[in-house]
Amino acid sequence: MSNWIPLWLHKLGSPPTFYRFAGTLQPWAMTLALLLGAIALYGGLVLAPADYQQGDAYRIIFIHVPSAEMSMFIYAVMGVAAFIALVWRIKLAEVVAMESAPIGAAFTFITLITGSLWGKPMWGTWWTWDARLTSELVLLFLYLGVIGLYHAFEDRRQGARAAAFLAIIGIINVPIVHFSVNWWNTLHQGSTINVFGQSKMSWDMLWPLLTMMLATKFYYAASLFRRVRTDLLALEGGKDWVRKIAEDEAKS
Amino acid sequence: MNRAGLLAACTAMLRRDLTLAWRRRGDIAMPVLYALIVTMLFPFALGPEDTLLQRIAGGVVLVTVLLAMLLALDAMFSSDIEDGSLEQLVMAPQPLALMLGMKILAHWITTALPLIVIAPLMAAMLHLPGAVIPVLLLALLLATPLLSLLGAVLVALTAGTRRSGMLLALMLLPLCVPAVIFAAGAVAAAQQGLPWLAPISWLAAALVLAVVLAPLACAAALRIALDA
């Protein structure tokens, strides 16, 4: 029936296999994240020329834009994992969804902070009730709602399922919120990077930005793997494979 | 399940919830009093100038009604969970979504409707021009069911937890942003003499969507929360 799903993917869904898999990949992902992040920072802060209008202040986009992108990317990952968790009741998907939420909330927070740091010299104000800023703030509250609901239940799996449901409601609501807020008020500049067609940005500034976007992806993967591994150990506390790991740890 | 049976079940559900609410009439008055007192606080906090109050009146009434509904939302399923009748409802042969839809309707009648009835009084306290009040009422008539429906889904999700009040606010308020924007937008447009039908239509569209989806989502959420 489900032959089109390769066997290794099935196996990856089982906690012990994923624990080993994530353990192998996690250091690599972290190394890549740090390496690419360092290159991107050097490229963005040192090599890239200053903007003719904004001077050096624009350089905050090398943090701001990748974080903003990650805040939405992680919400999408969380939504997909939540959907899988609810439909097929896969324990790993629940863990991935719930452990993505704090990372996503952190990226959203960084986006808001760097945005307001940039807004002070450029717009002359820390905060303004502009469409994108407000949507991002709502996104932060959605993340916090998911985290809060997850921790409100005593049974962690039940909490994960309830919070997964909330994440899916949020995913339906995010476009509506974004659209309605857009209709309400807009000051934020339009997007500068265009995947299809010419970007309105010089290549000297673009490559560090793209490198940083890649670095944040790897950081997310590394962070997620680490969190999921810890969570799996806690969830599967009584199982044989966890006991074996604990015994091996005690021996060495 | 034939149609007559379903209709009878729906009326029975509605009558039961309304009777229960009527037996505890004091609870119905609470959100109304809360809304009036909050409205009264604004002139104290901002000063009694007519022009300022007039400008914020629509928004204050909307947000106050929203907060009053939020306070009452917690009670939507709590007594049914305590005496176990909610679990009976989950196991009943009638479709759970339909029954929950009736419960939401009963809750809207007992909490939102009294608030809408006193909304003109609240608006008058803040000197909202009389010509705008019908638009405010129309916006409230469309926005409050939307909040009840959205709120019901979230209340159902927190049904299995204790002390869910603040959590409910944290989850519900971000999701209400569109309803507040459109309702307040309609009132503001009417106040400036601009056409206000567009935001009202958006509210109506959102309500139609919620009427179809929210009871189904509420049923699914309840099954998760009760682990049924």
Taken as a percent bin, the fraction of beta residues of chain A is: under 5%
Our estimate of the beta-strand percent of chain B is: under 5%
C-alpha Rg of chain A, in Å?
21 Å
**pLDDT averaged over residues of chain B:** 89
Helix/strand order of chain B: HHHHHHHHHH
- Name the shape of chain B in a single word: globular
User: Oligomeric form of this entry?
Assistant: heterodimer
Helix content of chain A: over 70%
Number of alpha- plus pi-helical segments of chain A: 8
Mean pLDDT of chain A equals: 84
Overview of the structural elements:
- The complex is a heterodimer of chains A (252) and B (228).
- Chain A is mainly alpha-helical.
- Chain A has one domain.
- Chain A contains eight helices and no strands.
- Chain A has helices at residues 7-12, 15-47, 61-88, 91-123, 131-152, 156-184, 203-235, 240-251.
- The radius of gyration of chain A is 21 Å and the shape is globular.
- The N and C termini of chain A lie far apart (45 Å).
- The model of chain A has no long low-confidence stretch (mean pLDDT 84).
- The two termini of chain B are 22 Å apart.
- The mean pLDDT of chain B is 89.
- Chain B has one domain (3-225).
- In chain B, helix 6 crosses helix 7 (133-157) and helix 7 (133-157) packs across helix 8 (165-175).
- With 228 residues, chain B is mostly helical.
- Chain B is globular and about 55 Å long.
- The chains are: A mainly alpha (252), B mainly alpha (228).
- The interface between A and B is medium-sized, with 27 and 27 residues.
List keywords for this structure.
heterodimer, A: 252 residues, mainly alpha, 8 helices, 0% strand, globular, B: 228 residues, 10 helices
